[in-house]
Structures are given as structure tokens and as C-alpha cells.
Design goal:
The complex is a heterodimer of chains A (131) and B (815). Chain A is an all-alpha fold and 131 residues long. Chain A contains six helices and no strands. Helices cover 67% and strands 0% of the residues of chain A. In chain A, helix 3 runs antiparallel to helix 5, helix 3 packs parallel to helix 6 and helix 5 packs antiparallel against helix 6. Chain A starts with 5 loop residues before the first helix and ends in a 7-residue tail after the last helix. Chain B has 815 residues and is an alpha+beta fold. Among the domains of chain B are: 54 residues, no CATH class; 109 residues, no CATH class; 98 residues; 135 residues. Helix content of chain B is 58%, strand content 11%. In chain B, the strands form five sheets. In chain B, strands 7-15-16-3-17-18 form a six-stranded mixed β-sheet, with helices on both faces. In chain B, strands 2-1-4-5-6 form a five-stranded antiparallel β-sheet, with helices on one face. Chain B has a three-stranded antiparallel β-sheet with strand order 10-13-14. The chains are: A mainly alpha (131), B alpha+beta (815).
Chain lengths: 131, 815
Amino acid sequence: MVASDGYAQQDPRPALEHADRMLREAGPDTAGLWPRTTARLMRLALERATDLYWIRTRPEMIACPTTIRLLMLEGALGRAGARRAFLVWSRLSDATHPHPYELAPTVGELRRWHNDVTELVKLLDPPTSVK
Amino acid sequence: MSGDSLFQLVRARLEASDLTEDAQRFALAAVAGEPVLNQVLASPVEPIAARADGTDTMLRDVWLRSITVKGFRGIGPTSTLAVEPGPGLTLVVGRNGSGKSSFAEGIEVALTGCSERLKSKTAEWQKQWRNVHDGADAEVTVSFQVDSESRSLIVRRSWNGRSIDDAVSAVYWDDHEKCDLPERGWSAALEQYRPFLSYDDLGKVSDKPSVGFDLLVGVLGLEAITRAQDLLTSACSDLGKTVAEPREALPALITMLRTTDDDRARRVMHALASDPLDIAEVRSVLAETPAPGGSGSRRAMLSRLASLPLPDTEKVAATCAMLRAAATAVEAVRGTDTDEAARLADLLEAAFTHHAAHGDGPCPVCRQGILDAVWQERTADEVGRLRQRAADAIAARSRLARAIREARDLIHPVPAALSGTAPDGVDLSKATSAWRDWDALTRESDALVLADGLEHLEPVLTESAGDIRDRAVKLLQNIEDVWRPIAGRLQVWMDLHKRAQAAQSHYRDVSSALTWTKTQAEQLRDERLAPFSEQSARIWAELRQESNVDLGPIAFAGSGRTRRKLAVPVRIDGTDGGVPMLSNGELHALGLSLFLPRSTAPDSPFRFVVIDDPVQAMDPSKVEGLARVLYDAATDRQVIVLTHDDRLADALRRLMLPTTILEVTRREGSQVEIVPNQDPVRRYLDDARQIARTTLLPDDLAAITVAGCCRDAVEVACQRTARRRLHTEGVSVAEVDERLVHARTTMNRVAVALFGEGRRTAQVMPTLNRLADGRWAADVLHEIREGTHQPRGDLDHIIRDSERLCDLILATSSS
């Protein structure tokens, strides 16, 4: 395990990049497990971006449940943006959780969510506010 | 059942029947097929044998090995679905659009050239069969294991044009030896047994139960006898027409006969009015050349007049000449006493004898003359002259007598025809009087008078009687002109009658053969339908679950030729309802109940059946029944089920029915992957192990993902445990679903598994400590719980303990 701490450890982008690679490339390593794993990585990226935003703005929010942290993003993303973040996160959670009768998400769904998360991550971490 | 064994069965039943020998032969020949029946109808001595219909060469016990699809529908680069070629249930799960149905359609298209699903779509839709990413070389290859063959049978279809039909198929053994499927009887078998059941197929039962019959009748193996019925029906109707034809043609014939007063027409009418028909009489009427009819008939009188014995003018002239010549000759020898001349010649010859005996001497008669050589010479001439004169006179007289005789022979007595009443206003008086005069000549003995009379009367007679004769001939001619076409039509009718007579016994035998065959066909149909009906009822009983719909025994409705409808007696809440009252899900369950027995019929050469998405419209409670039905069918069949969600797989796991589950997923660019999915608990744990090993992810991401996988494994174990526990407690499936949905957190889910109730989270950790006999279970649960994003411990350790925790939870419901 890479020993890393602080900001670097919380960077949402590596998780997104790995998810993207998994969507595009087939490998003997990942046969069959990639849809759930990409969903997991994307959800992680979204959670990390959210946490980074709150650490920067209102650190006490970190104590709240994830759902609250997402829904409170109105300030950064607007009302519709916050709802979208919450929705994508819910779908990603469903995709990774074994819900009754649900199968792994399709590539189309995963790609759409990836685009959504990528955009949300950008909005939550504008270049001007980095460092 | 093959056509041949049906033939043998019918033969045996015929021998036990009370049909005539010919009827038995016709029935059997009809089962053997049209050419055989035609032959037997033509000459009923031919021995009957069942046709070789390729049954012997049929490839049987066909199992599926693999389906490889490339560039077709949802599949881009080559992807292979391999299955175990033997009995068992294989589930292929994949989300809509994952490409799983492309495998089902692929095998159908490869085998039949088209797919039911594609057929039902619009032309525009049909153009979209090539894969959008990699459709340049579209190809489907299906590999089969055929019983008693060590080689695999390969069916390959590759496309070379825009249309789905622009394709070539190749069938060969894996050593490239060619094989011909139609010759092997597969085309009909594919049609009959349809080893593919798509969602659309299952829906077909919906509004037309008679469709079900057409699909089922093939399976019952009774086409031969159904066809035999058709053949006998048509033969019977042909023969019936032949038999009825003369009777049907009779009124027209009688009408035609009435148009003439010909005596023959009357005779024929009389013969045809009698019962039975007097055919011999008609035949004799027809055989009668235009010669006498009944003596009193007009035609008889005319024909007598037509044949009046008129004298021959030339002959009369010759006879007259002869008479006159003879008379002249007789005149020439007038006065000749032929007796005296002869007596004198005799006397002189006696004198010669005397002279020869006594030599020269005086005449013994007159005593004055001398009998000597001079005398003898002179007297010899005298004797010659005497004899000549006598002969001439005799000849002349006899010639005259003969001439008179001949003349009289020329004279025919007045014909009777002239004494009657003449038909058609012919005047007989002149001819009659001429003929009387003529007749009077027979009494004339004077040759010259006779000759004069003949010569004088002959032209008179010839003119008057000849006139009558000519008129009679003309009238007769007219009658014949009218009669000839009538006779022609009568002859045609007689031929019809002859054919009808010949067909009569065939007709009787064919129609009794038909009656027998009909009864047998119905009986056989019912006999053979019974097991299918029972199987359908069993399947329905499994699938109905909480449905208020009862399915009665399926039977053929109607009778005779209309018995082509399959009655599906549906009762809703105890009242008779119809198929249209069923819900969509119930319809599909019904479809499966009807079609699965067909696809798995004992006589099908195919041991596999591919079922595409039977779960779609089914409510959760029916899925368990479906799982059992499919599992039962798989005891001796290779059942491959494609399904778009995990309900069926879940039910099979819950019922602990061993199943091979394959999961189909589709990456970007239509790359389709198939991975075995044995059990979600093991699958998530395997995922975790793979992620722990992979170099694809940095360690921190890997650790978080591993924890997620382990948590999923535990949650799936919880779900299954909860279902089993609540099921044994009698909680309904819907209620179980409800409780699971409400258990949002990992702790809630463990609580549902352990206590059937998600709110009792407080008791989870103590219970786990007790069950695990230590703290490891609670520890690992804590480690992988949601919110603990980065596990601190060793990943292998976490995975191992998660697996132990899963087993621990699962064990609480299986005791």
C-alpha cells in the first residue's frame, strides 16, 4: 500500500482515470469484475471531491453522513447540480451494492456516470482554487 | 415418433380392424404418402411399404457445444458462449443490451436462416442486424455434439451483403467433411420442435390458441396420419364424383332424348327409367346399326320403303333380249317332232347293228331295199342330221323356259311395305298399282308378251317405287342425322357409367378407410396429447403460484376436420374465463407451459433448448416456480436460459438447484465478455482477491475497492439467508423483498439475515461474537462497513475473514 497522506491521498482524479481505463480496455485481470469496480472507483472519486470541497470550505461538514454532504453542495453546484451529484452517487451505490435482482450496470450507464462524475469533480475543484 | 413407427402402428391397428382388405390397403397406403396411395388405387396388388423419409439418417441426440458470434447484432469482435454438452441448466445473465440475446438469435439464424424475432420487425429494423462497431465480417458458428459421433458438427453462417438473407451456410464435421442438414431431416425437426423459445414465441399463445395446435401437432408425430386424412378425403371426393357423375348427368340426358321421337330414344329412356338401370338394353340400342327398329315404328316402315326391291333396269333389258332370242330360236325349230326324229334315228341305228351282224342283204323292214355299204354311208349322215335337229329343238325350248323363269324371277311380288299406311304422307297408290301390274306379268307364259310387258312396265315401276324409295332413304337419313349426336352423347354417358361402376367398390373402400382413419387420428391425437397436456398442467401448477387462474386439461376442441383448435380451459377464481383474460405474465407462463413440453418432446432430435428471457413479465413469486420447471426440464435436457436480471439465478441459488450461471457483459466497442458466475458471494470474494492482486490500481484505491467487494459478499450472504429464513417462516416473497429494500445499511442487512428484522442492529455484534466464538467476525464486519473507507488491516486477512463471516451467516439459515 502506498504510504500517502493529506491532500494527495484524497485526490479524486486517479480513481476516475482508472475507471476510464477499465471501461476502455479488456484484460484477463479484470474480466467480469470491471463494471462493479469502475462503479466503485467513480463513487470514490465523487466522495473524495465532495470531501475536499468541504475540507476547504466547512471542515465540520465532514462529520455529516455522505448523503447530507452531497445534498448540501448547493452552494457550489446550484440546486440542480447538487441533486445531480446526489443522484449519480445513489446510482453508483446501487451498482456496487447487491440489490435484489439487479445485475451489473451496462457500459452505457457506466460511461454516462463517468462523464457526470468527471464534470462534477471539475466543478467542485476549479483550477483557480487548487492551492 | 417417426413416420415409420406410426406406419407400423397403423398397420397393426388396421389388421385388428373390420375393414375390407382393400380398405385396409387404402388406409395404409395413405399413411405411406400420396405416391403410394395413387399407386395402390391404380393397381391394388402392389405391396405397401412406408416411404424412406430420412428418419434413419436423422442426426439424433444433438447437444450444443458452443455459439461463436462475430459482428452480428450486439456482438462486435468474436465472442464465444461455450456450454457443457450434456443435460443441465445453464443460465446466461446479462443486462438488456449486453449481447446475450444475440447469441440466442445467432443460433436460430444459423440453423434456420432467419429468426422469429427478426421476422416480426420492420424492414428498417431488419437492416440493423450487423454490429455497428465491428459488423464488416458477420458470422455465426454453432458447434454441436451429436450422439455417437466423436467429431463436432459445425454450422457456420456468414454474411456477404446488406440483407440478413445475403448469407451462406456451411455445415461440416470438424474434420471438414460436409454434412447436409435438410437431408438429415433437420429442417422439419426445427420447425416441429423449435428448440428456441424467444419472448415473442412465448407471447404467441396469447390470442390464438389454434396457433398452439399447429405447433403441437408436429410434436405429436401425427402429420402422416393427418396427411393421410387429407389424401383419403380428396381420393374419396374424386371417386365420389366419378360414382355420382352418370346419375348427375342423367336428367340432361333424358331431356336430350325427349327432343326426338326416335324409337331408340324411347327405348333408352325406358331403360334409364327402370331401377336398376337397364344398361344392357342401352348397350343393345347403341349396338344396333341403322337397321330395323320395332316393326311398327316409323323408322321401320321407312327403312322397309327404303329397301323396296326395285327391278334392275339393265337386267330387265338383258332378260327381255334373252326372252326374244329364245322365242326366235324356238320358232326356228317349229314343227320339229323331236320324238319322232329320235325314234327314227334309233331305228336306223338298229339297222346298222343288223347290218353289222348279218352283212349286206335286203332291208328286213321293207324287204325292197338293200343294206350295203352305200346305204350305210348315206344312212349314217341321216342319223346325224336327225339327232342334231332333235337336240336343237330341245335346247331352244329349254332356253326359252329358262328365259321365262328368269324373267319371272325379276318380278318381286308387291312388297308388304306398300300395302301399309305410309308415313310422312308418302303416296303409295301409283307405285302400288304399277307394282300390281308388274306382278301380274308372272302369270304371262308367252315370252314375247312377257318381254314386251317387262320392257313397258319396268320404267313405270322404277319411277314410281324408286321415288318412294328415295324419299324414304332421305327421311331415314334425317332421322340418323338427328340420332347420331344423341348416340354420341349416350356413348359418353355409357363410358361414365362404366367408370362409375369400376369406381364403386374403390369408393366404398376408400370412404370406409377415411372414416376409420379419422377416428384413429382423433384417438391417436388424444392419446399422444395426454402426456403433453399433463406436462403443461404440471408446469402451470409450478408457475401459477399465487395466481387465481386454473388451467384445465388441454384438449382438442371441435370435431373432425375442424379439430385444429387447442382448447386451453382457463378458470379464473373458479369461473370459466378465456385466454384473453390472463395477465401478460400469466400468458407467458402459459406459453411456457405449452411450448416447453414441445421443445423437450421425447422424439425431438435436439436435446437442447434455448429460452430467451422467460422471466420478463413474471412477478417474483412465479420465478421460483420457473426455476423448478427449468431445473426439472434440465434433468435430461440441456436447457439454456438467457435472462436480463438476477431473479432467476437468485431463485435457483436459494432453492439450491445446481446451475451453471454465465454472465454476459459488453464493453465499449461491442466487446462481449462471458464469465462464469457461480455464486455472487464467491464472485464478490473473487473480485476482492483479484483486486488485491492486480497491478492495475494503486494500493489505496485497491484497499477501498477490496473492502467494498467484501461488504457486498457479506450483504449477498445476508440477503440469501434472510430469504431462506423468512421463507421457512411462511413470509411471502413480496414481504421479504420489502424488508430487504428497507434494510439500507450493512448492519440492517445483517440484522435481517440473523433475526428476519432489519431494525434489531443492537443485537448484531453480540450475536456475531457468540456465533463466531470470538471477536473476529465483529472485527471484520467493522473493517468493511460502509463509511470505513480505507481498511487498516492486511487485505488477504480481511478477505479471508469476510469469507468466514459469509459462511457463518449462511449457516444460520441452513440448520
